[in-house]
Automatic annotation (TrEMBL):
Signal peptide, first to last residue: none
Pfam family, one: PAS_9
Domain PAC: 81-133
Name assigned to this protein: Diguanylate cyclase with PAS/PAC sensor
Organism of provenance: Desulfatibacillum aliphaticivorans
């Protein structure tokens, strides 16, 4: 049994920490881990980290728990590791975290488990300050807490002006949730609203301070991405698509939903106005819909 004083020390840490045995079965879960993940110690101790708990994914949305897991590899070879991953929060959205993994050894030097430290790297204080500022300007969508259409249009107008005056590059990503009507019809609008909130939280986790993500209307979202070229816009679009597809939403009825998004993207051209760039992104979005959904079309 863990020494009580050592357990108290772990619980005073600001970083999330959990300990596992060689089978990656969780044996300790500190208070910061509860705060960062939404899961209490009672809910996770005794389970494996891949058992519908953290389910780390990389930037491409690929699950690491069943593949290149830093904790598994460290337990296997004893080498400490660090990685930037996206953690599954109990509420369903993904949180960007930096993880540090160390092997646990007994008095003989044998590896008997692993320790994973993790911290939120989404700059929440800056995001919250920006949310407060936008709320004061009535530019926030009340459901998703993203920018509303009014604010997105104002930002897009400013981006276009900077493009024409200074040739500053930017891109637009247009997202539409696939088969969203079926979610509302099957589970009701309360669950539909939960899906929109969860996707909004995932988009916020992908945003840099100078990007703008907003709800365009209904189940449509838009991202204005500053200082980006076409290859990097494609990479970001695929990252977002993968993260949305990897997001799991726990419904009040006990079922777990997964949703996907079709995405259309484009980079700004010197002759663009608001109507032309939106029309081009929207056309690419419908190309993605017609190509089987859950994909990205870029021009």
């Amino acid at each position: 049994m863990m020494d009580i004083r050592l357990r108290d020390l772990f619980d005073e840490m600001q970083e999330g920490l959990y300990l596992t045995d060689n089978e990656r079965r969780i044996t300790h879960w500190n208070e910061a881990a509860e705060r960062l993940t939404g899961y209490t110690a009672e809910q996770v101790i005794g389970s494996k980290c891949s058992d519908n708990v953290l389910m780390h994914v990389n930037e491409q949305g690929e699950c690491l728990c069943m593949g290149e897991c830093p904790l598994r590899d460290t337990i296997f070879d004893g080498t400490p590791r660090e990685a930037d991953v996206f953690m599954h929060h109990k509420n369903g959205h993904r949180v960007p975290v930096r993880v540090r993994v160390l092997p646990l050894r007994n008095s003989n030097g044998d590896i008997v488990g692993g320790a994973e430290f993790f911290s939120d790297v989404s700059s929440q204080m800056g995001v919250q300050a920006r949310i407060k500022e936008l709320e004061q300007l009535v530019l926030i969508d009340n459901l998703t807490m993203l920018s509303n259409r009014r604010h997105v249009e104002a930002e897009l107008d400013r981006f276009l002006t900077e493009k024409q005056r200074y040739d500053l590059s930017f891109g637009v990503l247009f997202l539409d949730l696939d088969h969203f009507k079926n979610v509302n019809d099957t589970f009701g609008h309360n669950v539909g609203d939960l899906v929109l909130k969860t996707v909004g939280a995932t988009l916020k986790s992908c945003a840099r301070p100078y990007d703008t993500f907003g709800r365009w209307g209904g189940e449509e979202f838009i991202g204005l991405i500053r200082n980006i070229d076409a290859p990097n816009l494609r990479g970001l679009g695929e990252r977002i698509r993968g993260l949305v597809a990897a997001t799991m939403i726990n419904t009040p009825c006990g079922k777990t939903l997964q949703v996907t998004a079709s995405i259309g993207g484009t980079t700004a051209r010197q002759e663009d106005d608001m109507e032309s760039i939106i029309a081009r992104a929207d056309k690419n979005l419908y190309c993605s819909k017609n190509s089987g959904r859950n994909c990205l079309t870029l021009s």
